[in-house]
Amino acid sequence: MIDNLRLTTDRNTEQDWLKTNLARFTGMLQGQRDLTTVGRMLLSELAPLVNAQQGVIYQMETEESAGMVMLSTFAGDGNDSHLADSASETLDRSIELSLEDNADHLIAAIDAALGRLEAGTYGQCERCSQPIAEERLEALPWATKCIECKRLEERG
Ligand SMILES: [Zn+2]
Predict the structure, then answer these.
(1) Which candidate among 11, 16, 60, 142 keeps its CA 20 to 30 Å from the CA of 118?
(2) How many angstroms separate the alpha carbon of residue 84 from the centre of ligand 1?
(3) How many angstroms separate the alpha carbon of residue 156 from the centre of ligand 1?
(4) How far is the CA of 132 from the centre of ligand 1 (A)?
């Protein structure tokens, strides 16, 4: 019970944080057409926010090639001041973003995530209704499915 309460409190705080930052991203990305620029902006903003020391952005390629193109990378200098506060917790943290389609798609995805935050369904898998893993949401804040469902979907 107490654990649940704490979880809810943490989650609320995190969602406030997310709401603020996702809204900022949409504002920032609005009007951007170049996915490389969008990826770089996103990564440079998102990495410090989640205390990631490394980040990679891939662009999903079309069905024919089914590969991923590395779009942008980020590596912190390791001398970040907030590293000292929570070194053990953040040491190995990295972000991997996969961007699909184009900037408009991404903005729409972020908008949808904001909608789910408003509706109170954020972080819930839209397929199986189970909570989406925290690590997944950190890497992909606008994820709509848990990793298992996403894999099922990709397998077709
Ligand atoms: Zn699921």
Answers:
(1) 60
(2) 36
(3) 15
(4) 7
- How many angstroms is it from 87 CA to the middle of ligand 1? 31
Distance (Å) from CA 79 to ligand 1 centroid: 38
pLDDT digits (tens, 9 = 90+) for 1-48: 555 555 566 666 767 777 777 777 777 777 777 777 777 777 777 666
> For the residues of 1-22, what is the DSSP string, one character each?
-HHHHHHHHHHHHHHHHHHHHH
Name beta bridge partners: 69: 59
Query: 52-103, pLDDT tens digit by residue?
Result: 666 777 666 555 545 666 666 766 554 444 444 444 444 455 666 666 656 6
